[in-house]
């Protein structure tokens, strides 16, 4: 029987993530027509609760893009970077690099500002880059999944605006686990997705789009179709998607967002993520030779990266992954590209602990207990 040997693991990776029982069961709810009155029963509450969770200003449009978080990032590039614009892509890790790649493969005039792995955005270096390049658009990452770095969105956006540029934010791995700060920062567009801190399967990108962005998009040619925020906006205002949505995911999203906003509450959810971050930090102190990788003051509330002890290698981390599988867990042995670069340059590799979405402190405590034993033994 197909599926009979599929492993039931607790996922402590950085996405996809563990799903609550109620979210999995919501996948059995009836399908519906996305241009029918049944659509409003799902997407009306979805749009309302996304806005509440984001604390977004009323003048921002909430849009749902079919596909992963990468789709909404590409939409921001296609819709908001005109042929005559220069875009500065600020990177603190692999997904900041991805934003730059999206700009390049779409033929945009793109330059990049890279920070060392584990470091957050240094405002002095950013200011120098703004002076040197005079960009029209600047992209950066709120929460870098590959390195466990979180950036100060209001401060970065304020500096970008000071130099006449417009900021776009990648928030794929933090939205639903910490405040978005959209209200304070007012980015041109704030981009995220379902499969990380929201506690849902992959399948939708989510954009919070400012009036300024919609106006700018009018002057951008070749926006594509599914990547055109103006086309998306027409349907979003009707609580619809531009193209046929994944109805199963919509049912799950409706149930999950209602739980986040009305049962757990947004404030308690954010506090739980902070508690779990602190738990991992305390655990790291007990692990001889191991240390926190992300720069102090820039450590994520949803994913922690750990620098390994001398003698640990990428190959040994893969062994740890298989041992942890035997205990019923999916361990994250680190982002492959980054670990290769670290080892090639004589540095210790890192691993990641995803403590996002609906993982609880009790679940995390048990995971850390077993992981600590495995690491000591290997």
Name some characteristics of this structure.
16% strand, globular, 378 residues, alpha/beta, single chain, Aspartate Aminotransferase, domain 1, three-stranded antiparallel sheet, Aspartate Aminotransferase, domain 2, 14 helices, seven-stranded mixed sheet
Describe the structure.
With 378 residues, the protein is of the alpha/beta class. It folds into two domains: 10-15 and 265-377, Aspartate Aminotransferase, domain 1; 21-262, Aspartate Aminotransferase, domain 2 (3-Layer(aba) Sandwich). 44% of the residues lie in helices and 16% in strands. It contains 14 helices and 14 strands. The chain has helices at residues 21-26, 37-54, 69-80, 94-105, 123-133, 153-162, 182-185, 211-217, 229-236, 247-264, 266-286, 314-326, 336-344, 361-377, and strands spanning 10-11, 61-66, 86-91, 109-114, 137-141, 143-144, 149-150, 166-170, 189-193, 204-209, 291-292, 303-307, 329-330, 350-354. The strands form four sheets. It has a seven-stranded mixed beta sheet, sandwiched between helices. It has a three-stranded antiparallel beta sheet with strand order 11-12-14, with helices on one face. α4 links the parallel β3 and β4. α11 packs parallel to α14 (361-377). It is globular and about 60 Å long. The two termini are 36 Å apart. 49% of the residues are buried. The model has no long low-confidence stretch (mean pLDDT 97).
């Amino acid at each position: 029987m197909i599926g009979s040997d599929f492993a039931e693991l607790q996922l402590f990776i950085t996405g996809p993530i563990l799903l609550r029982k109620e979210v999995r069961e919501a996948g059995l709810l009836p399908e519906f027509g996305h241009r029918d009155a049944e659509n409003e029963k799902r997407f009306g509450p979805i749009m309302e609760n996304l806005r509440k969770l984001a604390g977004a200003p009323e003048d921002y449009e909430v849009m749902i893009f079919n596909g992963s978080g990468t789709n909404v990032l590409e939409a921001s590039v296609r819709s908001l970077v005109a042929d005559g614009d220069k875009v500065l892509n600020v990177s603190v890790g692999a997904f900041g690099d991805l934003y730059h790649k999206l700009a390049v493969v779409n033929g945009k005039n793109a330059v990049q500002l890279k920070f060392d792995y584990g470091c957050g955005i240094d405002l002095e270096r950013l200011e120098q880059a703004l002076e040197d390049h005079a960009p029209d658009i600047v992209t950066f990452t709120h929460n870098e999944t590959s390195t466990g770095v979180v950036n100060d969105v209001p401060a970065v956006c304020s500096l970008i605006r000071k130099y006449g540029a417009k900021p776009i934010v990648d928030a794929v791995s933090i939205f639903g686990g910490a405040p978005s700060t959209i209200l304070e920062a007012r980015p041109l567009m704030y981009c995220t997705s379902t499969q990380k801190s929201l506690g849902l399967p992959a399948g939708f990108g989510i954009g919070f789009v400012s009036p300024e962005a919609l106006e700018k998009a009018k002057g951008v040619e070749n926006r594509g179709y599914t990547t055109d925020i103006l086309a998306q906006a027409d349907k979003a205002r009707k609580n619809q998607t531009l193209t046929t949505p994944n109805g199963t995911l919509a049912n799950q999203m409706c149930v999950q967002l209602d739980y986040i906003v009305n049962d757990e509450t947004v404030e308690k959810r954010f506090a739980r993520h902070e508690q779990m971050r602190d738990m991992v930090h305390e655990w790291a102190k007990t692990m001889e030779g191991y240390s926190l990788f992300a720069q102090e003051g820039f450590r994520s509330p949803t994913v922690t990266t750990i620098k390994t002890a001398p003698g640990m290698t990428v190959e040994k981390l893969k062994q740890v992954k298989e041992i942890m599988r035997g205990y019923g867990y999916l361990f994250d042995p680190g982002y492959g590209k980054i670990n290769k670069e670290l080892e090639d340059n004589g540095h210790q590799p890192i691993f990641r602990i995803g403590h996002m979405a609906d993982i609880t402190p009790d679940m995390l405590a048990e995971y850390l207990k077993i992981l600590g034993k495995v690491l000591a033994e290997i």
